[in-house]
Design goal:
By secondary structure, this protein is mainly alpha-helical. Helix content is about 70%, strand content about 0%. It has 2 domains: about 110 residues, no CATH class; about 140 residues, no CATH class.
């Protein structure tokens, strides 16, 4: 049964993160009740740095979430909130501490700090996308941590590149200075991470967590082939191709 809190999280994700919403709706209902609070949380902390032009206010919004995660990790009362409340029901202390790292990574956006170099960007997508996918997989009972982190980091980079035009519209250049070779290496590394060929095939719960990154391979391929498409906002595939790729990924 979907509770009011889970329904509220689902509505937030449907509006603000349609890719993760579509992927989650492909999962069994019991798994959706775990994934929607996690993805709603991710949406909240992704938005927080941009809710105010004042870095201090943006930092305060992120600190609110860090404090909520501390409450969850401590196992005591957790503040009542449409996302924090159901989040507390799907996280254990370890999961809460892991997600605190995602909050910390977002502080650079609140402070409007530029990416210093390719390693800086690599660390950012590993801490945001990689950690989120591992927490989701772990909460569902998944056990293949490195696989989840790698695929999550690849999805994180793909989503980050999709967001470049929005960053530019805000007056921020999100990409570090890189040579063509450094950029190609960064994208190729994450493309390889997005399609692991070695090791056991994960069980259904972990595959459902990994499904949120179903667009990563296509996006990274296009970025590698045509870097100019990134600032032009031309990385996204046609909608019918987007839907078909999810259906195909769900089958395997």
């Amino acid at each position: 049964m979907i509770t009011a809190d889970i329904a509220a999280c689902a509505a937030l994700v449907q509006k603000g993160d349609p890719d993760r919403f579509a992927a989650t709706m492909a999962a069994p209902v019991a798994m959706r009740q775990v994934l929607f609070p996690l993805y709603a949380f991710n949406l909240e902390i992704a938005r927080a740095p941009w809710m105010s032009a004042e870095p201090l206010i943006a930092e305060m919004r992120l600190q609110w979430w860090h404090d909520a995660l501390d409450e969850i990790a401590a196992g005591g009362p957790v503040r009542r909130h449409e996302v924090a409340t159901p989040l507390a029901q799907v996280l254990d202390a370890t999961g809460a501490r892991l997600l605190a790292g995602c909050v910390t990574a977002r502080r650079r956006e609140a402070q409007r700090l530029p990416m210093a170099d390719a390693d800086d960007l690599r660390d950012y997508v590993a801490e945001t996308g990689g950690t989120l996918m591992w927490v989701a997989a772990r909460a569902l009972g998944g056990t293949l941590e490195m696989r989840a982190r790698n695929m999550g980091a690849a999805a994180g980079l793909a989503n980050y590149l999709l967001g470049v035009p929005l960053f530019l519209a805000r007056g921020t250049n999100p990409l570090p200075e890189m040579t063509t070779a450094h950029f190609a290496g960064l994208v190729q590394t994450h493309l390889d991470m997005a399609r692991p060929s070695a090791g056991p095939r994960p069980a259904l719960p972990q595959r459902m967590a990994e499904l949120s990154g179903w667009r990563a391979v296509g996006i990274l391929k296009r970025a590698l082939r045509d870097p100019a498409a990134i600032p032009a906002g031309l990385l996204a595939e046609p909608e019918i191709q987007r839907r078909l790729s999810l259906m195909l990924r769900r089958m395997f």
